Amino acid sequence: MNTSQLKQMMLSTAHQMIACEPMLTELDQAIGDGDHGIGMKRGFSALVKLINDQTFQPLNVGECWIQMGTTLMMSMGGASGAVFGTLFRAGGKSLAGETEFSSVSLARWLNQGWLAVHARGGAKPGDKTMVDALAAAAGVANSAQSLSLSEALTRCAEAADQGAERTKMMVASFGRAKNLGDRAIGHCDPGAVSMALILRFMAQYAENEVG
Ligand code: ADP
Ligand code: MG
Q1: Which residues form the DhaL domain (predicted)?
Q2: 86: Cβ below 6 Å to ligand 1?
């Protein structure tokens, strides 16, 4: 997948994330302050604007991810603005100068992204954050590097989905849900669900458009 296809994949992903706003709001109302859906909608609307701007012509996939991450970070606010912005930017830095986004790049993007998110906010798997979905996807991506990008994305999306589902049984150690203690049990972490959705929408685009 070249830089222009990556832009189209993320444009499609952004439109679908915007449509998930009510569901994400409901999740954050259960264990947070209810703004996660609005924040994601704001960030991904800014991403749509960036990608549709004719002056946005990144020279390679690394630069494309970095600029998309900066846009998320600047527009979203909240914990998730920093977290998803960091994933996109750190993932992008690990792909500096590369002109193709492949299953090998996906593995690097997810693994460097999750290391950076961990370095920034301290969350590790089991803490009931988006890291539960991200780390699960990163692990699967490592063993999917010989597959096509579409197949690798599909597997990563499934792993992220399972990671997000596992957060239901967890008590939170980070973010606002931390204050709820055991009352957070029974609810999925909204950021983990967002992480799984992003990968699912990327996988759907890659399957339909790239094969
Ligand atoms: P806020 O907590 O500022 O209201 P959001 O509601 O937009 O931010 O996002 C909440 C999500 O952010 C959580 O569901 C969780 O997945 C994620 N999150 C919070 N703190 C961290 C952290 N330290 N590391 C990784 N993800 C985090
Ligand atoms: Mg919130």
Answers
A1: 4-204
A2: no
Tokens describing residue 7? 């832009």
Binding site membership of 121 for ligand 1 (Cβ less than 6 Å): yes
* 3-class DSSP string for the chain: CEHHHHHHHHHHHHHHHHHCHHHHHHHHHHHCCCCHHHHHHHHHHHHHHHHHCCCCCCCCHHHHHHHHHHHHHHHHCHHHHHHHHHHHHHHHHCCCCCCECCHHHHHHHHHHHHHHHHHHHCCCCCCCCCHHHHHHHHHHHHCCCCCCHHHHHHHHHHHHHHHHHHHHHCCCCCCHHHHHHHHHCCCCCHHHHHHHHHHHHHHHHHHHHHC
All structural domains of the chain:
3-209 (1.25.40.340)
pLDDT at 175: 84
**Per residue in 150-202, pLDDT tens?**
999 999 999 999 999 999 999 999 888 889 989 889 999 999 999 999 999 99
Tokens read off for 36: 């996660």
List pLDDT tens digits, range 1-60.
999 999 999 999 999 999 999 999 999 999 999 999 999 999 999 999 999 999 999 999
Whether ligand 1 lies within 6 angstroms of the CB of 32 is answered as: yes
Strand partners for 100: 2
- Please give the model's pTM, rounded to 2 decimal places: 0.97
